[in-house]
Amino acid sequence: MHCAARKLLIYFDKISILILSGNVNCPLLPSKAFLLQYVAERGTEVLMKISYIYHSAFLAETTECYYLFDYYKGPLPPMNPAKPVFVLASHSHQDHYAPCVFDQLRQLGMQNITAVLSNDISRKLYPEICPVVRVIHSQEYTLPCHTHLQTLLSTDSGVAFLLSCPEGVLY
Asked: How many C-alpha atoms does 137 have within 13 Å on its Cβ side?
């Protein structure tokens, strides 16, 4: 079975997803070798890479920046220190926000870090090394890197994120 799409989600290496541009025609479950050959032969651009980290944590890499969602623990993948990173925490539960992530990002050489934290996270837990955008549900925010963030009421606590960037929309 094949699929054709303007933008296509493709699983890659069990923990990552690539979003490709253009009209993509490939098997629904392509192998890593197929993907690498497909990109090389057709010049297909990788728009976004999404990596699973642990529990609820994901890292989305776009051409301009990184978005790190609900980091709790686990190794962070290698990152380009020239790109900004937005650390988004949806609520205060310890399995969705770990302040140690800011030190880990610094150890990776990341310099341009912005925290986007739900208003239920105590200010005592805010990082001192970067700016903080405090968010509440049912609001809209404009962030750097052509990022539009809409917050929704969460089914747990805090907020849910609906993030739009030039490469796509993440929920």
From this structure: 12
What backbone torsions phi and psi does residue 110 show, to the nearest 5 degrees? -70, 130
The CA-CA-CA angle for residues 152, 102, 59, to 5°, reads: 55
Model pLDDT, residue 36: 64
**Is the pLDDT reported for residue 37 higher than 80?**
no
pTM of the model: 0.79
Long-range contact set of residues 57-66: C-beta below 8 Å, sequence gap at least 24: 60/170, 62/145, 62/165, 62/166, 62/167, 63/166, 63/167, 64/145, 64/146, 64/165, 64/166, 65/144, 65/145, 65/147, 65/165
d(CA 147, CA 108): 23
- The residue behind tokens 């999404």 is 50
Residue listed under structure tokens 């609001």: 139
Strand, helix or coil at 105? helix
